[in-house]
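[job 0417] fold request received: Citrate lyase acyl carrier protein
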Amino acid sequence: MKIIQPAFAGTLESSDLQVRIAPNPEGAIDIALDSSVQKQFGSAIEQLVRDVLSNMGVESALLEIEDKGALDCVIKARVQAAVMRAAETKQMEWRALS
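[job 0417] inference complete; emitting structure tokens
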């Protein structure tokens, strides 16, 4: 999926996260993560986000993520919603993440 416009999904409430996504003119995935559990889970959160982006076919995007302790299922859902909004699509090919 091609990211064509800025978009966001999520809130800054406890146990949630906010994902802001925009096109990246440099053609890469760039993730800026600010998490209340960054020391314990920062690398796992970033890897999960990269897995979701890969499964959705996103090859280029700028992401700013503010995490307030969200579970993996919430992280996946918020990233998917932000990508779909940024790509202006309403359909998604559902695949299970390993």
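[job 0417] notes: The mean pLDDT is 92. The longest strand covers residues 29-35.
[job 0417] exit 0
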